[in-house]
């Protein structure tokens, strides 16, 4: 099946079996290894990408679902002003330990900040609730998203 879609701002046209998972396409076929596969069942959030601006789990998606869509991965995070600020805040707040969950956390947080530029801590917790972290714990991650929101202020990019 030939599929065309936008990936981190670049047009992609690829011919793969329709039942190929998106996480495998990204990691194995396109070399974008920032998207992780933790559980393969949609429980951990490590494979979170953005599809047309909304957080989705790449381990539960098939290549055919990308046709004509806009896909953003953690590799494209710094291509947007909000993503660059968010990534810097994760570093400044020490919200990264082993790093396995970080790409998924950052992509979920990006969706949240695009929808709500000044989220409360409870809103941040809810926005990240589908993403699991076993090392850092959630306080530093929530602090990082809160810091990014503060750093962005009214400079949020268009949705």
Describe the structure.
There is one protein chain. With 159 residues, the protein is an alpha+beta fold. The chain folds into two domains: 2-75, Ubiquitin-like (UB roll) (Roll); 77-155, DNA polymerase, domain 1, CATH 1.10.150.120. 35% of the residues lie in helices and 14% in strands. The chain is built from five helices and five strands; from the N terminus they run ββαβββαααα. The protein has helices spanning 22-29, 81-92, 102-115, 121-127, 139-152; strands at residues 2-7, 10-15, 48-51, 54-57, 70-72. It has a five-stranded mixed beta sheet with strand order 2-1-5-3-4, with helices on one face. β1 and β2 (10-15) form a beta hairpin. α2 (81-92) crosses α3 (102-115) and α2 crosses α5. The chain is globular, with a radius of gyration of 15 Å.
Biggest sheet layout: 5 strands, mixed
- How many distinct domains? 2
| Averaged pLDDT | 94
Biggest sheet: strand arrangement: 2-1-5-3-4
What fraction of residues sit in β-strands?
A: 5-15%
Structural classification? alpha+beta
- Oligomeric state of shown chains: single chain
Low-confidence stretches: none
Give me the strand/helix succession.
EEHEEEHHHH
Fraction of residues in H or I helices: 25-40%
CATH class of the largest domain: Mainly Alpha
Under CATH, the homologous superfamily of the largest domain reads: [2Fe-2S]-binding domain
